[in-house]
Design brief:
mainly alpha, Arc Repressor Mutant, subunit A, 2 strands, Transcriptional regulator, TetR family, DNA-binding, HTH_TetR, DNA binding
Length: 217
């Protein structure tokens, strides 16, 4: 006669049980959010060298057991923080381009302003997204992986045809140029005001759009 296996029942019950009005899944989610919050603070203010399992747990007031509940290692946390900021930037850029009507100049201005807002409204995010990948190999690799995502956003505005090689090359070149402009502006080596940077980036985008138009078949 088969014997019923009830070993899974305690876990299922514990997932449903509540302490202080929250269940196990909600508490795990809250702990993960806290670790991400601390990761952003340390990475965005002190740099990747300051992000260790010990330092994160100390600032989050959690044991390492709870760290490994959410992340396999320190690099996994770094990437999660980076991905979170990158997705915010991608969403802001895409929304600005999709929701702005009018000339190419108006769309380009809205896109540049939206992207810069993510970098500057919370300076930690600018450091995470652009400055730390310059010196941290893990973040640098992720940044290289995500570049085509941002290039596709620009390409879609330059030319609606994904197969247009000229638009794709131009968008890829623009991403490299804009990224370096933003990096040098954030690290202080490019002495431009916010308005000067926006104006230059918009002119760069419009010039690139004209280049694509001139070579369109």
């Amino acid at each position: 006669m088969p014997v019923n296996d009830h070993r899974a029942e305690p876990t299922e019950r514990s997932n449903r049980m509540t302490w202080g009005g929250t269940n196990l899944e909600q508490r795990r989610s809250a702990r993960r959010s806290k670790l991400l919050e601390v990761g952003l603070e340390l990475l965005g203010t002190q740099g990747s060298a300051a992000v260790t399992v010990r330092s994160v747990c100390r600032h989050a007031k959690l044991t390492d057991r709870y760290f490994y509940e959410s992340f396999s290692d320190r690099d996994a946390l770094l990437l999660a923080v980076y991905d979170q900021v990158a997705e915010e930037a991608r969403t802001a850029l895409g929304a600005a381009m999709a929701n702005t009507e009018g000339t190419r100049e108006a769309v380009a201005t809205a896109a540049v302003e939206a992207f810069l807002a993510v970098l500057t409204d919370d300076p930690r995010k600018g450091r995470v997204l652009l400055l730390e990948p310059v010196t941290d190999a893990t973040l640098g690799g992720r940044g290289a992986e995500l570049m085509p995502v941002f290039a596709d956003l620009i390409r879609s505005e330059l030319d609606g045809e994904a197969a247009d090689l000229g638009a794709r090359m131009t968008a890829t070149a623009l991403i490299g140029a804009l990224t370096n402009l933003f990096i040098r502006w954030l690290d202080g080596s490019l002495p431009a005001t916010h308005e000067q940077l926006v104006d230059y980036c918009v002119k760069l985008l419009l010039t690139a759009a004209s280049l694509v138009d001139d070579h369109a078949v």
